[in-house]
Amino acid sequence: MKSVFVPFFTLVVVLVLTVAATETPMALTCEQTKSLVMPCLDFLTNKTNATSSPCCQGLNKLIVSTPSKEEKLVACKCLKEAVSHIPNFDDDKANNLPKVCNINVDYPISKNFDCENIIKN
């Protein structure tokens, strides 16, 4: 009996580790989403004329962390709500941010963008 148990137990451990390693990470929370773009705030409110490396890295991580349309929609709504409370937010700089950071985004970044369009396209 012992000779059957060890290989079976080993197989179970390998299967559990394989499943754990291939699970998709949990979606970003709104707080995580906002914290990723927080380094861009000085640029987006005209306090600086150049983006920072942490800003572009955060934007890139946000794009990579939201691959599905549903995740993009959630992130869009979160950020749109957040920027509605930021005085001096420069919508033109926000729309230009992916280009400045050399990151491809398949929808405009704008406080006026209808986030529901992400799902429609």
Automatic annotation (TrEMBL):
N-terminal signal peptide: 1-21
InterPro entries: Bifun_inhib/LTP/seed_sf, Bifunc_inhib/LTP/seed_store, Plant_nsLTP
GO terms (BP aspect): lipid transport
Domain Bifunctional inhibitor/plant lipid transfer protein/seed storage helical: 30-115
Disulfide bond among keywords: yes
Any matching Pfam family: Tryp_alpha_amyl
SUPFAM superfamilies, alphabetized: Bifunctional inhibitor/lipid-transfer protein/seed storage 2S albumin (SSF47699)
UniProt GO molecular function: lipid binding
Keyword Disulfide bond belongs to the record: yes
Keywords recorded for this protein, A-Z: Disulfide bond, Lipid-binding, Signal, Transport
Record-linked PANTHER family: NON-SPECIFIC LIPID-TRANSFER PROTEIN 2-RELATED (PTHR33076)
Family: Belongs to the plant LTP family.
Function: Plant non-specific lipid-transfer proteins transfer phospholipids as well as galactolipids across membranes. May play a role in wax or cutin deposition in the cell walls of expanding epidermal cells and certain secretory tissues.
Name of the protein described by the UniProt record: Non-specific lipid-transfer protein
Species per Swiss-Prot/TrEMBL record: Phaseolus vulgaris
